[in-house]
Design goal:
mainly alpha, two-stranded antiparallel ribbon, disordered N terminus, disordered C terminus
């Protein structure tokens, strides 16, 4: 990795927060970190099942529980709203209680909410337990990058790629298994089955918490970082983050990616049909769009940790959506091409996740940046479907909506430039004396 991409990892460092962090001993990825790797893997794959495991079963659940159209619309908005609010709250929990406890609590909340909502016949309780599950997953969204930074500073590219790829796989697998499980055992079993995996994902972090307690919270387990009660690094709240170019830029980049992605997930098949495609062609093109998130989740983190300048990559990912939109307007006869190009925009999320660590020096900084960017980003994601539907209702077609969505690429382009300064890190502005020693 180029020298400018990250600060050198010292053997031990006294952070601005006053805690001491020791780098992992040399000995390979697995030495002393098997439980931690298992924790990252299981958590990554369990962060979307409350969304994609329910969507194919929504007609059945609505009929069984008596959920109306407005209730179904609200249920569709809950994921991004919950992820957004959880994004702002997670860094506070990480700072006060540590990333390990946050990860364990996240997975326990996801398991409890998922299992609980499969048992109830009450619509309000179903919604409440859905929020519990989604909040747990929202905490998990944020805590992954700080955990990688804390425990895998020598393997960040590999672990962030794994985490991002499993998040995408974790969105695909529940969608694939939901209907078969429903046909075999009913919708309640289909939904509840994923709570077992969430519960399993909590166990590695509970084990790590026990290890930390036995070590007296001052010495790490073999091969890992010595753990303090909270994440090491300066305390960065909202007042500090809104003044940081890196934080604001990352939030803008993530927000526009969310706006476009969730807007297209809601409306792209309908848009294709509006431009004259039959149902089969529209469905096939939409499948191309959604499939592209998997290879992009693998390629982008590896590429972003190797290259010296990240902005050209961020710029490409910011512009592929506008290129696809304008191409669809001008030449709707090649939907597969435009779906493929738009699908490349799925790489924006793993790029942002990579930047949570590449542009920070400490686990606390990573947590603060991740929470701020995801908090802003997912709240904007909620607006994507609303923006598309409102513009279509106002104009009677999709051209104006696609032009407006294309213009958001300019905001994303600016955000990408702000989040990728060379040789600058989030903490530098707030703890210059401390971070200078790490350069």
């Amino acid at each position: 990795m180029a020298a400018e991409t990250m600060a050198p990892q010292p053997t031990s460092t006294t952070t601005a927060a006053g805690s001491t962090t020791a780098a992992p001993r040399n000995g390979g990825l697995w030495r002393g970190r098997v439980i931690l790797i298992l924790g990252i893997v299981l958590m990554g794959i369990t962060l979307r099942h409350a969304v994609t495991g329910l969507s194919p079963l929504l007609p059945v659940v609505r009929e069984q529980l008596g959920i109306g159209v407005s209730g179904a619309s609200l249920l569709g908005m809950l994921p991004t709203l919950s992820f957004g609010v959880a994004g702002f709250l997670a860094p506070v929990l990480i700072r006060r209680r540590g990333p390990e406890l946050t990860a364990a609590a996240a997975m326990l909340l996801a398991a409890a909410g998922t299992f609980g909502r499969s048992l109830t016949d009450s619509v309000p309780l179903f919604f409440l337990l859905s929020v519990v599950a989604l909040f747990g997953m929202g905490f998990g969204n944020v805590v992954g990058a700080p955990l990688v930074k804390k425990y895998f500073p020598d393997r960040q590219a590999a672990m962030l790629t794994t985490f991002a790829l499993l998040m995408q796989a974790g969105a695909t697998l529940p969608a694939m298994t939901a209907v078969p499980l429903n046909n075999a055992a009913g919708w309640r079993v289909s939904i509840a089955s994923w709570s077992v995996l969430s519960l399993a994902a909590a166990l590695p972090w509970l084990i790590q918490l026990v290890r930390m307690r036995r070590a007296g919270s001052t010495a790490g387990t073999p091969g890992t970082v010595a753990a303090a009660p909270g994440a090491s690094g300066p305390r960065l709240g909202l007042a500090q983050l809104v003044t940081s170019r890196i934080a604001v830029g990352t939030a803008l980049f993530y927000a526009m990616a969310s706006l476009n992605t969730y807007g297209m997930l809601a409306w792209l098949p309908t848009i294709f049909k509006g431009y004259g495609m039959d149902l089969n062609t529209a469905g096939a093109a939409f499948s191309v769009f959604t499939f592209m998130t998997l290879p992009m989740a693998f390629i982008v983190p590896l590429l972003a940790t190797k290259i010296k300048r990240v902005y050209p990559l961020a710029a490409v990912l910011a512009l592929v959506y506008p290129v696809g939109y304008i191409g669809l307007i001008l030449n709707p006869g090649t939907p597969m091409l435009w779906a493929f190009i738009m699908g490349l925009g799925g790489g924006a999320f793993p790029l942002a996740i990579t930047m949570f660590n590449r542009r920070t020096r400490t686990a606390a900084g990573s947590a603060a940046l991740a929470g701020f960017a995801m908090g802003v980003g997912y709240l904007f994601g909620t607006l994507g479907p609303l923006l598309g539907g409102t513009l279509f209702a106002a104009t009677g077609g999709w051209t104006t909506a696609l032009i407006i969505f294309a213009l958001t690429g300019l905001v994303m382009l600016a955000g990408g430039w702000m989040m990728t300064p060379r040789n600058h890190f989030l903490e530098d502005k707030f703890t210059p004396a401390t971070t200078a020693a790490l350069k």
